[in-house]
Structure formats: C-alpha cells, structure tokens
Amino acid sequence: MIFAEKKFYEEILVPFGVKFRPVLSLRTGEIMDDVVQLDLPVIDEDMDMTDMKYSDCPKCGRRLYTPTPEDFGRKYKKSDLPHIFEGKELVGNLHAARCKNIIISQQVRQELIKHRQLGQCSCIPLI
C-alpha cells in the first residue's frame, strides 16, 4: 500500500492515469481529506528474470527473487504498459519477500525529480 498527500496525487500522478482509494481515519472513521491510497494496477507481464537469483519458498512454493543492483536494469517485453504499476514478481529473502516492485516510467521519474520528490539515483526506470 502506498499513501500520498492528495495535493501531490492530484498535481503529479493524476496526469499519468493513476487511480486512488479513499483513506479512513482510524481516530474518527471518516474519509480523510488530505491523504489517498494509490490504486496501482498489477500487470500480468513477465519481467525478464533470466539469471536472477531466487529461492523457492518451502511453505508456499512461490519463487522469491533476491535482486542485486545489477538486476534493476531488467526490462518488460510489452511496450504499452501503464506509467506506474506493480510488477507481479515477489522480491526479498524468503519470508520477507512480501512486496512487489513499483515500476515507474521515465516520464513519472522526471516529474518526481522536478518536484523534488525523488533524488536522481533513487530508482532506475524500466519503461
């Protein structure tokens, strides 16, 4: 789950077609006016995982990838992907592999840098 200030979402992410879900306040139970949860699509497209280190979870049998810095230049075969989405591959070490990569386009990366929301080296765009 990724949360964002509503102003940031409206100014930077809406132009890229990112959708959102409302966020309820734990204290009041009311919908918050200034925070949203990003509703990122999970694509059914395989990243090129050739030669990437992995292990199979002994409990669930899923393949869990352990990325190294060299692995972040991997590409997707499809070219008409959304500007920001969740990859379907689980990354991390065995039981810590509960998260998926958030993939952003060059255009989203440039907007984040322009608005000082991302340092130059915080991510490597794949699409």
A few lines on this structure:
With 127 residues, the protein is an alpha+beta fold.
Care to describe what's here?
The chain is an alpha+beta fold and 127 residues long. The chain has two domains: 1-39, no CATH class; 41-127, no CATH class. Helix content is 13%, strand content 30%. It contains two helices and seven strands. The chain has helices spanning 6-13, 106-114, and strands at residues 3-5, 19-24, 31-39, 54-56, 63-65, 84-91, 99-104. The protein has a three-stranded antiparallel β-sheet with strand order 1-3-2, with helices on one face. The protein is globular, with a radius of gyration of 16 Å. The two termini are 22 Å apart.
Structural descriptors:
single chain; 127 residues; alpha+beta; 3-stranded antiparallel β-sheet; two-stranded antiparallel ribbon; 13% helix; 30% strand; globular
Give the helix/strand layout.
Blueprint: E1 3-5, H1 6-13, E2 19-24, E3 31-39, E4 54-56, E5 63-65, E6 84-91, E7 99-104, H2 106-114
Antiparallel strand pairs: 1-3, 2-3, 4-5, 6-7
